[in-house]
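Same chain as my last thread, 140 residues:
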Amino acid sequence: MIKEFKEFAMRGNVIDMAIGVVMGGAFGKIVDEIVEILMRFVAAVTGAVKFEDLAIKVGGVNITYGAVLQQIISFIIIAFCMFLVVKAMNKVLEMGKKEEKVEPTTKECPYCFSEIPIQATRCPNCTAEFEGYMNPVENK
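reply #2:
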């Protein structure tokens, strides 16, 4: 049983997930601070209104909608931060990719327009000779 648990715990997926959870928690704290700063700006623009305190009185009961409003604004800010992080990571990953130039292995016969090996000096289909012939693709 201990051996099975060790195999389970040391599998790559479990470790990757654990790292993701730890990184997510750390990133969450950063985003929470950004949200807190931005909410202060929102409060300054709206006249120092605390969203948590916003409520409607219906029949003697206070219905607090401010906390929901603040969570919606927080969600939008967090989603935007995540969008920026994913966009930046995609850009970094794209920069790492190298475009490989693929050399052509065939050319087109200028007489019968069939595909032939690039080294060929005579077409196997129409038997035309064309030594020194340049590939039309290369001429463009």
